[in-house]
Amino acid sequence: MDRSPLVPASNERRSKLRFPLARKVRYEFVQSNQSQCGQGEILNISSSGVLLQAEHELQPGTKLRLSISWPIKLNETASIKLVAEGKIVWAKEKKVAVRLTSHEFRLLGSKL
Fold first, then answer.
1. What is the largest CA-CA distance in the chain?
2. pLDDT digits (tens, 9 = 90+) for 17-70
3. Is-contact 104 59, C-beta < 8 A?
4. How far apart are CA 36 and CA 53, in angstroms?
5. For domain 19-107, is the CATH number 2.30.30.40?
6. What global pTM score does this model have?
7. Are 81 and 108 in contact (CB under 8 A)?
8. Whose CA is closest to 61, among 102, 97, 13?
9. Any idea where the domains of the chain sit in the sequence?
């Protein structure tokens, strides 16, 4: 059965709708007491979570800091990015779901 990604199924566990958003993402995490960086692609997003394809195999419980270039410009002129923090709630191979704990928009070019 084909259904819209914006319409939750009756057995849907998420309380927020996820929206498809194909955008590049840069992420930071700590592994073995060292800060690591990686890149990937956002697959979908909601106000409380993100599903992304990462270049690393990451583990549930890992805290991430994400930087996502936003598709809409501020005042139609300034490029912005979404900077968010969260924790991986599940991972399968290089696909990870992140529950967001904070997020804010920043002008593109400001530090991650």
1. 46
2. 888 889 999 999 998 888 999 999 999 999 899 999 999 999 999 999 999 999
3. no
4. 16
5. no
6. 0.79
7. yes
8. 97
9. 19-107
